[in-house]
What we know:
about 25% helix
Amino acid sequence: MKKSILILLFASILFACQTDDDIPLTYEEGTNEYVNDWIYTQMKRYYYWNESMPGKGNLSLPPKEYFATLVNKNDRFSYAIHTSSPETFPQSLQNSFGFDLSFIEYEGQVYGVVMYALSNSPAERNGLERGQLINAIGGTALSQGNYNSLYQNLLTAKEVKLQVVSYSEKSGFTAPKQINISQGFTFSQPVFSQVIPYQNHIVGYIEIPHFNAGLSKSLLKEFQTFKNQSVNEIVVDLRYNGGGDVSSAAALSVLLAPNIQSSNPFIRFKGNSNGGEVNQTFKESLEMNESQVSFEALRAAHPQTQRVYVLCGSHTASASEIIINNLKPFMEVITIGEKTVGKDVASFAVEDDRIVGAQAKWVLYPAIYKLFNANGEGNYAAGLQPNVVLNEFQKLEVFPLGNTNEVLLHQALNSISGNGRMMKAITTQTLQKQNLSIISEPMVIKKIWH
């Protein structure tokens, strides 16, 4: 009897000592609490900065707002989307219309310069071209006081109305015309390459808009052409490449780097205490998503080159920065342009699959790994500073990518020929865009996890 009373007394004391935090909570499916509790659990497991995360906090917040409360102050890239809510997706002119702008001032007038119009995009189909100058948006003339707000309005617009002029040093300005562009789809972009005989050199120029999964086949074809035409210098244009698939970046690295073996270390992924560190060789990185083209086939197409010139800028991010940082232990990498974005983190998609068969769901893209090269060099969150700092819009006349008169390519060709003289005639002043956030696609990797 005494023993039974003691057991009951101990159980009642134990129950009384339990707090609300000790009792697992369950939430009704479909509520913010249901979603946010899942978000917190996933971030606590995968997020690189999980140890600095706050407590659960207010689980009743809208999920996208709640996710933002968990993100480290140094993290510019993690985000969450709901697959049936386009308003939760990262927004950019490139995603909506297939182009983007830089802003300059020339003789007191502010212009938007078309940096690119993607192939078969709504922008290109309506006549927009690289180098065109925009002097009015939605009927409002651009000025120092309004260009930033007008640009921000474009990011959420369904249609854009642009007043456009062109300029050349020979003929001056054309008459203005209006171009209207509605939102639409833009599909995968082709790789552009050409062989440029320049003085005593044969230069292979290749412009890569994005590192798509499966890109290795196209890269192999282009480099076989380079090798067949005895190319002895390579210029890789990554100024508008925001990243993508690590395996296709590894494929380009295998084609470029001299004297490497399949077992040479290529990349290090450093995660939190749960994920640990994952080291991959060139072959292992290639085979994550590019198994249809072998390491040996790519090596056979390597031209007789010992260095690479990379054209870069404020849109060069993620897998493109891997090309710059991770080739440095194996070859000379000469960068020309402006500082890169500084995305030294990788992520994989974390999907809420608790409801079987659900098509509409939350998907997280948290920063999971920090990235380093074979020598352990990384930590370039502030961006990679180029060897030759050069503004591609220093002149009002802007040439197409691949044109030998184009500022960055012209500088690379001068450097190759031994004439490193910089262009001196600066006629424009570049204006800073005040972006609401850094728009960068998630780096595509398989789920590497211990």
